[in-house]
Amino acid sequence: TLGQKVSPDTMASVSCTVRTKVSPDGTVTMSSETSTISAADPPTLSLTLSKVAPEGQPSVTLKSGSVMPAVGLGTWKAGPGIVQTAVTEAIKRGYRHIDCACDYGNEHEVGAGIKAAIASGICTRAELWVTSKLWNTYHAAEHVELACRKTLTDLGLDYVDLYLIHFPIATKYVPIEKRYPPEWIFDPDSKDPKEKMMIPVNVTLRETWGAMEQLKEKGLAREIGVSNHSCQAMMDMLKWCKYPPAVNQVEIHPFNAQASFTEFCKEHGIVVTGFSPLGAASYSWLDAGVQQTVLSDPTLAEIAAAHKKSVAQICIRWQVQRGLTVVPKSVNPERQSANLAVDDWALTDEDMEKILALDKRIRYNDPGDFCKGFGLPNGYPIYA
Fold first, then answer.
1. Most buried of 146, 206, 218, 316, CB within 10 angstroms?
2. What is the three-class DSSP state of 361?
3. What average pLDDT does the segment 219-242 reach?
4. pTM for the structure as a whole
5. Angstrom distances, CA of residue 275 to CA of 87, 251, 282
């Protein structure tokens, strides 16, 4: 009983662990366990309250002990005027993981969707996992916190659960008041061709990561990580960083399995999030020769038919079953629900092997290719 006086030789400490379960409708149930230890020390009480994924949903535990829902809602290329409703509806349908970024240009709408869900009693802020990302123009140490606070303002949040360095690419700073999000081109309206292009700058990963670590220490980001970073980049980071990256978000789908990469991350306690899990659907600008669509693959169709699931569900379940997290994008409520329904069934070992055999090492999101259109003849080949 709190407040009750006890003699030092009777009870020294009480540890109380409170476990929570969150149902898809946002209802929270709690249970506790206590233990008493005799000693001569003054009595103390410690309370541990851990965030968990909604009941019936898969999750992964980060090295820190934080619990991250395995399936999140992606918001890249979710159009204006649609995102707010899509986010609120997704949370209503059970999503507790929302993936966003400065560069997506819609964080204010994502924030409005989160606010509406919380206001309607679907969930609390503490039950959500919100990821955002630092854009290329803000890599200098003095700009990292500025960028993070802009994201927090747009989202209407005091902190993000995870903040990632979006690309291992530092570009010339563009003030927020001049253009936001700044995107890839330094000044699209300039008459000077040297400014109407992507302008890389010499800012090291070590400088940027040091500022990211300060965000964690200030409580602006509960966890910090990277995106689109290679094993080599992480090998270097792990030698000097104070806080290792908790997560690396990269392109993963059946045509780009990244098996060695994911094993390296697991070995070092880094959780992997796969973006674009359905392949080329979000990359409509690619030519037909590259646009090999995962969703029409006959092997995946055969596996889907055997399990009476959609090919999209097979792709998502494949990643979850590998121990990864995944952020498929959908603004369609029915597809949102289907993408989330991957925890009460499993692929066979043979299925997993067949899907892994589809790997063609096809990347759709490669700065080595698309940056050629931003004034760099050789692109920016971060995967070379």
1. 316
2. coil
3. 98
4. 0.86
5. 17, 5, 11
